[in-house]
Amino acid sequence: MSSSFFCPTKLVVSDDAANDLILELKNASPDGVFVITDQGIMQNGIAKPLLQALQIAGFNPVIYDNVPGNPNIPDVKLALEKVKNKDISHVVAIGGGSVLDTAKAIGILLADKDLDYEDVQWKRQQITKGSLPVIGIPTTAGTGSEVTHVAVIGDRNGFKMGVLHPALFLKTAIIDGKLMVSLPPRLTATTGMDALVHSIEAFLSKKSNCTADIFALGALKSIVNWLPIAYRDGSNLLARNAMGIAATWAGIAFDQSSLGLVHALAGPLCGNYHLHHGLGVAVLLPATLDFNASAIPVDRWESLRNALGLPTDARPQDLGNWSREFLKSLDMPTHLSELGLTMDRIPMIAESATKMAMIGLNIRSAGLEECKQVLASGL
Ligand SMILES: [Fe+2]
Question: What is the count of structural domains for the chain?
Answer without folding.
Answer: 2
